[in-house]
Amino acid sequence: MTDSADKIVRVAGGQGFWGDWLDAPRRQVEGGPVDYLMLDYLAEVTMSILQKQKERDPQMGYARDFIGAMESVLPAVTERGVKVIANAGGVNPAACAQAVLEVARTHGAAGKLKVGVVTGDDLLPRLDALIEEGHSLSHMETGEPLSTVRDRVLSANAYIGSTPIVEALSRGANVVVTGRSTDTALTMAPLRHEFGWGAEDWDKLAAGIIAGHIIECGAQCSGGNCLYDWRNIPDLANIGYPIVEARADGTFTIAKHPNTGGRINVPSVTEQCVYEMGDPNTYITPDVVADFTTIRLADDGPDRVKVFGIKGRPATDKLKVSIAYRAGYKAVGTLVYSWPDALEKAQLADRVLRERLDNMGLRFDSLLTEFVGVSSTHGPLTVSTGEAPEVQFRIGVRSGNRKDVERFTRELAPLVLNGPPSVTGFAGGRPKVEEIVAYWPALVDKTVVKTAVEVLS
Fold first, then answer.
1. Is the pTM above the cut of 0.85?
2. Does domain 326-438 fall into CATH 3.40.30.10?
3. 273-290 pLDDT tens trace
4. Angle formed by the axes of helices 202-215 and 266-273, to 10°?
């Protein structure tokens, strides 16, 4: 029997966002031994997209890519005991769970899946009651109360921690579907479950959070989107996604399967550690406050990095709430001008278009121009070292008045023939008017968020 001190739990990261490599989950469970597959689908804007889908169809509102992923990994789950943790439930975890069970039935695996469904993060039906009870849900940066945009809110979800996921696993679930859990909780939960870490094992909990943070973006820590020595990262077409090899004492190693591309080393893991990090001393999650300044990294062999020394502190009494609301309309259009004098032509087109919009009496909340290829990335920091062979003139407007935005969309195409010369690459017709969904971060007392766990089979 393996001593608990020698026990290693392997959690494989298989998705970093909704839209990530569809083949990654299957490659993770087939490429070598793993105990858990962690799939992260949600970003702030994703919740509002899913809410719109649910409004159109009550059976939607979850990340549908997850159903294909489950289909591809079903043999590993039912035959080898790999467990899957995913926040693919979006705003409709129950419907997502039923879709997973339907996959099992379709493939002759009925009764072999026990799907844990975690709910309680969706605060949208309770917003008015919460505001009346004195929870202002003020914007974390501006201090404005949510009441100023309440009539335009699309979705409101609290970031929940690992505790309900641990409960689902303890009740025998081999697939756990959540709504808006923290990305890090998807990795933390199986470690808490396997090692029995207590609610006040702050250093170990912090280690679990940082393990989750490192693999939450998929291949971003194993060579993808990696700045360090990017020219020499091997075989990106066959990139390996990361795996946490965790131990009971809170130390862990980041690795990937043999014979896969990409690279895991101290620089690649370091880059991921600083991703979306604010105060490095105080990385707040529902479970624990992790101190990123205590992280120690060391090479542990080829494509292996050991992580250790992590310290944590008690969690706060608040949960972050991700709120999305309607914030008007936008449209963005482009024209490409070719050499010679490409930038000068694009600048003239910008002046002409702005004058025409002004003559029409149109006033926008925002009107932004970029000259892609010259100044779009770094703006005035760019120093031109020579004449650009072509420049993309990109212009966008934003307004609360949809009709004004629609009028803008009709003014770009005429420049092809009645503006500066040498337009090329124009296709796609008029710019599309799109609704703007804005992000409203807020805090709420933990006591008002009640999660629930149901296990279905």
1. yes
2. no
3. 999 888 999 999 999 999
4. 100
